[in-house]
Amino acid sequence: MTVRLVNDVIHLEGACQVEEAEALLVLVQAGAQRSVDLTECRQLHGAVLQVLLAFRPPIRGQCKDPFIRDRILPSLLAS
Questions:
Q1: What backbone phi and psi angles, to 5 degrees, belong to 36?
Q2: Which of 8, 45, 47, 60 has a CA 20 to 30 Å removed from the CA of 71?
Q3: What gap in Å lies between CA 46 and CA 7, rounded to an integer?
Q4: CA distance 23 to 74
């Protein structure tokens, strides 16, 4: 499973495919105080990214993929 909840932190790990978007959506909607940790994330499907952009949870860690880290993460961190 590439989406898992530990305490109030949602961890995205490995290659997060389209199937993970719904799991992420459920976890984000269920806890407004939850943050998302991208430390072990290698790849984000566009649907997963849309959930992150729509709900703007606090983001932790740096993604291993340089494109996500350098191009996508700044959009997620912008207010």
A1: -120, 125
A2: 8
A3: 26
A4: 23
Spacing of C-alpha 40 from chain mean position: 10
Burial class (CB in 10 A: 0-12, 13-18, 19+), 75: exposed
d(CA 10, CA 38): 9
Residue 48's CB is within 10 A of a number of other CB atoms, namely 25
pLDDT tens digits, 42-78: 999 999 999 999 999 999 998 888 998 899 888 888 7
Q: Which residue has the tokens 């459920």?
A: 26
Sorting pLDDT into bands at 50, 70 and 90, what band is 29? very high
